[in-house]
Structures are given as C-alpha cells and as structure tokens.
Amino acid sequence: QERFTCYRYDPQDPEGLSGPAILSLLETQEGELWIGTSQGLDRFDRETGRFVHYQPDASDPYAAYSRVILSIYEDRSGMLWLGTYGGGVGSLDVETGAWRFYRHDPEDAQSLSSNLVTSVHGDQEGDLWIGTWGGGLNRLDRETGGFTHYRYDPEHPDSLSSDTLM
C-alpha cells in the first residue's frame, strides 16, 4: 500500500521546506530529490524526511532573486543548473557547494539576454539551452561562457514565435 506524506512550509523549522511555494522539482540520476522554492533550493533527505538547504551567497546583490528557483536541470556531470526569477541562471556544484551565476550585462552582447530564467535544458551534444521571460532563448557556450541568443523577429518567419518562453 502506497502512502502520501504532505510536507508544509514552517518558518520555525530549520530542516523543513525553505519556502512556502514549490516552483520546480528534479529527481537526479542518483535518485536525489531537489525542490526549487520561492525562497531557496532544497534537497530532500529520504532517510530522515528532512530538507537540506542550499542558498547563494547572501552578499550577492541579486541574492533575493537568485533564491526563487523556477527550474532545475542536471547535466551529464551531475552539475545542477537553476533558472531563477531575476537572478539569472545559476550552477551549483553539489560536491563543493560552489555557486556560479550567469547574468545579463547590457555592456556584453554575449551575456544572458534576460535574468528572468523560466527553463533550463540540455541537448544530446551537452549544450545548455536557457529559456527566458522576455529575452528569448539562449545557448551557453561552456568553453567561453558566452551566450548565443535566439529571439523573435517579425521580419523572419522562421524565428521564435515569442521572446517569452515557459
């Protein structure tokens, strides 16, 4: 007989969910369950039934936005990639706990096109594709750290149909 357990946010519980809204879920290749919330990233410990919290550096000026995890993707190497609500796209090395963020820079044409990242996915070649709200689609060149942008262009019918991707 299967049993369903409900986990609710309790701000007084340091090992409970980190936020009241669950925005994304991922089960990794190793069977770990990651939860993106409105206030952070959690890993569920199946043995204890508790949550381990992963937070970006609080001194980062984008920290409040980087904690809102809209999407989670695991690449071939086990690195987690996180789409955030205004903090760009982040990577988390689960082994070291190190975070790295890619963000829009108006001075850099090869930066991420928008910091509101709605989806992150990889393809068979290992390329990372990032969907944004208002910035179209981005492909990350992992060697250079630069992005190629794919945008809606009304002059080209073969372009994206919208710059807002979900």
What would you say this structure looks like, in words?
With 166 residues, this protein is an all-beta fold. Helices cover 2% and strands 39% of the residues. The protein is built from 1 helix and 12 strands; from the N terminus they run E-E-E-E-H-E-E-E-E-E-E-E-E. The chain has one helix at residues 63-66; strands at 22-27, 33-37, 40-45, 50-54, 69-74, 80-84, 89-93, 98-102, 117-122, 128-132, 137-141, 146-150. The strands form 3 sheets. Strands 1-2-3-4 form a 4-stranded antiparallel sheet, with no helix packed on it. Strands 5-6-7-8 form a 4-stranded antiparallel sheet, with no helix packed on it. A 4-stranded antiparallel sheet has the order 9-10-11-12, with no helix packed on it. A hairpin with a 5-residue loop joins strand 1 and strand 2.
